[in-house]
Specification:
The complex is a heterodimer.
Chain A lengths: L8 H18 L6 H12 L4 H18 L1 H6 L9 H12 L3 H35 L3 H17 L5 H15 L2 E2 L6 E2 L5 H4 L4 H17 L19 H10 L1 H15 L5 H16 L11 H25 L5 H12 L16 H29 L4 H20 L2 H19 L5 H23 L6 H4 L1 H28 L1
Antiparallel strand pairs in A: 1-2
Helix pairs in contact in A: 1-2, 1-3, 1-16, 2-3, 2-15, 3-14, 3-15, 3-16, 5-6, 5-14, 6-11, 6-12, 6-14, 6-16, 7-8, 7-13, 7-19, 7-21, 8-19, 10-17, 10-18, 12-13, 12-14, 13-14, 17-18
Chain B lengths: L11 H17 L18 H27 L14 H20 L2 H15 L4 H22 L20
Helix pairs in contact in B: 1-2, 3-4, 4-5
Classes of the chains: A mainly alpha, B mainly alpha.
Chain lengths: 491, 170
């Protein structure tokens, strides 16, 4: 492979076409980034190695960004990593600033991806060695931290958020046990053995429940779904990003580090960055109300995490998630040798792959812009048409995952559940986070206990565990302590 | 005040929901084997759901107590400014329609069921008949092209396996 070939039209055109494809797949609820990459791989085989690899890498980044488009406009995350983007992105859309929020989103995705790729190029082997130090208990505490941050950043009562998270983890126990595959809460139904999949649950919780709320306002049904949009968005978006450049940098860094941990993924990265940004923001009360920082944080982090996930994948051949596993498989088929030899500046194929990843971040801009404008046209339709279309897409999207009508029933049940919970002031995001992180939390805890023969002490004494527990305690105890100190000072 | 801000209001039904669901998970956890085949140290497949079920019950009781305390401290009913312009019946109708649509997709076919749902719902929500039908046909065509041909993702098939000319689903 040659770097010079990357600038040929017969590489650039399929590359850009694949990224546009990634935008449309990623923005369709029910079709995940994994599916987008899996669908493009067979087509990439017919291309030259440069074009084929560029297509696969391009789709993996684009689909992650694209999930934020329906998250912003419709409050339906296109991918699990986009759930954090709904909190503030949708608030912007409700006041006619959806395109503005998505422009910030697109630019931050590009910046986050560039940061992640830069880290990959410079320190991948060293960061991979650090990632290897994470064993069972470290992953347990990291997942718990991600969950707690997800609870703390949501609006409303922390107790309700915590109970929603507990319920989410309970739902994740339905199906085969994580260690022994013994059936739990299956009631003899083979569909239940596979468990309650979180993507149909997410579509129901965010999408269908939102439809049920919106149809109750007959006066708004004839208006356009998006409302009048702000005309000039690019300069204000650039100003906002410059104003919050610290948030961009810290979120991209957090995303890269979290993404480098096998199994952690872009969804934990997005929530982790959101939580960290809220805690360090000068205006934490604005998060969840349509805060620019609330858009910047998860979107910088999730694309950085995609690049971060390549660190253990390219250095050790350990893919951290399904998307990276497929990309790794495609690279192997194209004859790329995974391992430390990849990073040899003379003989390794690394420089070409890194150049592809860098250019992908820049090509994300026109591909993402096309997706935003296309979706924006849809939002000009009357609200009733968009709502009914959301219902149909929710059904089709839930079915499309595993071609199982049972997943559609799961979506329906969670839609009802989401409607009930939100009417009682319970945020839905911790529930989804619990479903995503629940298996990881249980698996790592039990595997860790098996490795220590039931001894709990290493959970609290291993060096990285000490740091993570300290961060957790600080997150939980510092805000109420600070409030009490303030009250005492006022007296 | 932002309409999307979730207020921390006590609610008996929510508390009972947490308690009921927690008891459900605790009760049916009895059917889960206590021990797995792995070595000692593993608490087994039953432990995690039991702890979480118990946490849900305790959390629900705590929420109930908080609700009682907030009721005693409340000075008057809270006012929902939007209440008069809402029609909860619309949500119920949509829910019933979707609840019937899902099994209908498997029986009478995706295309027919979708045409009926979209036309019916749009008409119910205030669109004219001809516009509702036009949107239904367009939406169906878009989904068939996008999922069936574009993404090569199968759509739900009908009970009899019928297919229209061109490979479009019935």
């Amino acid at each position: 492979m040659e770097i010079a070939n990357l600038y040929d039209w017969n590489v650039l055109i399929p590359w850009l076409a694949a990224m546009v494809f990634g935008v449309f797949v990623g923005s369709t609820p029910g079709l995940t980034a994994t599916m987008a990459v899996a669908l493009i791989v067979p087509i990439s085989y017919y291309m030259s190695p440069e074009a084929g690899i560029a297509m696969v890498i391009g789709v993996s980044f684009t689909a992650i960004f694209a999930g934020d488009i329906p998250a912003t406009y419709l409050r339906i995350p296109g991918t699990p990593a986009s759930a954090a983007a709904t909190l503030d992105g949708h608030e912007f859309a409700k006041r006619g600033e959806g395109r503005y929020a998505l422009t910030i989103n697109l630019l931050c995705s590009c910046l986050g991806g560039l940061f992640g790729v830069a880290v990959l190029m410079l320190v991948a082997p060293q960061l991979a060695q650090f990632a290897l130090k994470f064993s069972f208990f470290e992953y347990f505490w990291l997942s718990v931290c991600g969950l707690v941050l997800g609870i703390m950043v949501c609006q409303g009562s922390a107790l309700k958020g915590a109970l929603a998270a507990v319920l989410g983890i309970l739902f994740s126990t339905v199906g085969g046990d994580v260690i022994s595959y013994q059936p739990r809460y299956t009631f003899g139904d083979e569909n239940m053995l596979a468990g309650l999949r979180f993507i149909p649950a997410m579509i129901g919780l965010f999408g269908l429940s939102e439809v049920l709320r919106n149809v109750q306002r007959p006066d708004a049904l004839g208006q356009s779904a998006g409302g009048p949009e702000r005309k000039k968005v690019l300069r204000p978006a650039l100003r906002a990003i410059w104003k919050h450049k610290r948030t961009v940098a810290q979120s991209a860094a957090a995303g890269t580090v979290i993404g480098a941990l096998p199994g952690a993924g872009a969804d934990i990265a997005a929530w982790g960055a959101y939580g960290i940004s809220q805690k360090t923001s000068r205006h934490p009360e604005q998060f969840g109300q349509g805060s620019e920082e609330g858009v910047i944080a998860p979107t910088s982090a999730n694309n950085a995490a995609v690049a971060g996930a390549w660190i253990p994948a390219l250095v050790f051949g350990i893919p951290g998630d399904a998307v990276t596993a497929i990309v790794l498989g495609a690279l192997t088929i194209f004859g790329i040798q995974i391992g430390s030899s990849l990073f040899d500046p003379v003989t390794g194929e690394g420089p070409v792959i890194f150049r592809i990843a860098l250019i992908t971040q820049l090509l994300l801009l026109p591909a993402g812009y096309l997706g935003i404008r296309s979706f924006g046209l849809v939002m000009r339709l009357p609200r009733r048409i968009v709502l009914v279309a959301v219902v149909v897409f929710s059904v089709v999207g839930s079915y499309a995952l595993y071609n199982n009508i049972f997943d559609v029933y799961v979506m329906f049940a969670f839609g009802l559940l989401g409607y009930f919970l939100e009417s009682r002031g319970v945020p839905p995001a911790p529930l989804i986070l619990g479903m995503i992180l629940g298996p990881l939390i249980e698996d790592k805890l039990r595997a860790g206990l098996v490795s220590t023969g039931g001894d709990l002490l290493p959970m609290f004494t291993q060096p990285i565990c000490v740091v993570l527990v300290g961060l957790l305690l600080a997150t939980l105890l510092l805000p109420p302590l600070a409030r009490r100190l303030k009250k005492a000072q006022h007296r | 005040m932002n309409q999307t801000r979730l207020r921390s209001t006590g609610d008996v039904s929510l508390s009972l929901f947490w308690i009921g669901l927690g008891l459900f998970f605790l009760w049916f956890a009895r059917d889960i084997p206590q021990a797995s085949f792995t070595s000692e140290g593993d608490p087994g497949p039953r432990a995690f759901p039991q702890w979480l079920g118990l946490a849900l019950v305790i959390g629900g009781i705590w929420e109930l107590i908080r609700h009682r305390q907030s009721q005693q401290a409340a000075t008057g009913p809270s006012v929902d400014e939007d209440r008069h312009s809402r029609r909860p019946l619309n949500a119920l109708i949509v829910l019933i329609a979707v609840g019937l649509y899902i099994p209908a997709v498997s029986w009478i076919g995706f295309s027919v069921a979708t045409l009926m749902l979209v036309t019916g719902l749009l008409r119910f929500l205030g669109s004219r008949w001809w516009l509702s039908a036009a949107v239904a046909v367009s939406l169906l065509g878009l989904i068939q092209l996008l999922f069936g041909y574009g993404f090569n993702v199968p759509l739900p098939t009908n009970h009899w396996g019928l297919v229209l000319p061109g490979g479009f689903l019935f």
